[in-house]
Amino acid sequence: MKAYMTNGTVEFLLKLRKKNPEINLHLMHSSEGGIAYYENHEKKLFQSGREYEILMQTGDILEEGFVVMNNIPVSDESKPGFEYRFKNRTNSVEGMPGFQAFRLLRSTKSNTYVVFTQWESAKDFENWKESEQFKEAHKNQSSKKPANFLERPFLTICNMYTEEED
Questions:
Q1: Which of 45-49, 58-62, 112-116, 132-136 has the lowest mean pLDDT?
Q2: pLDDT of 105-146, one tens digit each?
Q3: Helix %, strand %, coil % for the chain, to 5?
Q4: Cα first-last separation, the chain
Q5: The three-state (H, E, C) secondary structure of 63-102, written as one string
Q6: How far apart are CA 69 and CA 5, in angstroms?
Q7: Contact 98/123 with Cβ under 8 angstroms?
Q8: Is 26 exposed, middle or buried (0-12, 13-18, 19+ CB in 10 A)?
Q9: What's the structural domain count of the chain?
Q10: Model confidence over 13-43: pLDDT tens digits?
Q11: CATH code of the domain in which 139 resides
Q12: Contacts 24+ apart (CB under 8 A), 118-121
């Protein structure tokens, strides 16, 4: 299955959504601008967008919520181990209060994976970060750049865009 994402102004992305009502185009916004995301549709909407393979998914992406995308560049030789660790994780986020959706996305054109999580609120995400499950899941990570990462991972944090925000 595939996922597609692009950045742009919210106004432009709203026009794109209105032109393509057959596609469930999820709109998000942050201090950096707008983000559009959709899954499993053959039509390619974005001329300069990003395409991903959906490796793992849990839950449905909802029209309201708080989204955190951990963008992780991984070297080619480290990809199998990275994917294996995710597929065999024992401490899952799915049972946390406020959890809505999870996607592990592998870019089709770059070495960057996206760990996409959606929450009811930013507070729910913060509670997850303070939980024992989070500490257990991240216990082997260090603050320095791991050898299998090409660059330091970075977060994209946004809220789902709702029409009332106009």
A1: 132-136
A2: 999 999 999 999 999 999 999 999 998 888 877 766 544 445
A3: 25, 35, 40
A4: 32
A5: CCCEEEEEEEEECHHHHHHHHHHHHCCCCCCCCCCCEEEE
A6: 12
A7: yes
A8: buried
A9: 1
A10: 999 999 999 999 999 999 889 999 999 877 8
A11: 3.30.70.100
A12: 118/59, 118/61, 118/62, 118/65, 118/66, 118/67, 118/160, 119/65, 119/66, 119/67, 119/68, 120/64, 120/65, 120/66, 121/65, 121/66
Query: Residue 61 is encoded by which pair of tokens?
Result: 């992406």
- Amino acid identity of residue 115, one-letter, is V
Question: Which residue range forms the structural domain that includes residue 26?
Answer: 2-165
Give the closest residue to 49 by CA, choosing from 105, 103, 104, 8: 8
Cα separation values, 83 from 3, 18, 86, 108, 118, Å: 17, 36, 5, 15, 20
Q: Which residue has the tokens 């469930």?
A: 24
Residue 98: both structure tokens together: 């406020």
Q: How far is Cα 85 from Cα 91, in angstroms, rounded to an integer?
A: 11
